[in-house]
Known about the structure:
Blueprint: E1 4-7, H1 9-25, H2 29-46, E2 59-62, E3 68-75, E4 80-88
Parallel strand pairs: 1-4
Antiparallel strand pairs: 2-3, 3-4
Helix pairs in contact: 1-2
Amino acid sequence: MLYKFVILQKADNEYYDALNWYALQESNLAAKFAADVEVSINRILQIPESYPKTKRGYRQALRETFPYFIVYFVDRTAGLISIVSIFYTSRNPGKKFRT
């Protein structure tokens, strides 16, 4: 099945916060982070069920290079993947599943 995807506002904000932080650390680090997230989203779109289910049916893909989870929900009926969080692993895990 070919899925569409949407990035919710919370995830979008988290993404840009991380991107800005990495840009301040090292000039090319932000680009590496952006590429890593893009690869992850493409993997999620190809095989969304390959990552484990967690609370309330969410799934999370742990990034290999950066300490982030991409938290998402698959709506098979609508053919839609909603990315709800790009979550820094050192944050309070209770906030991971709040939209």
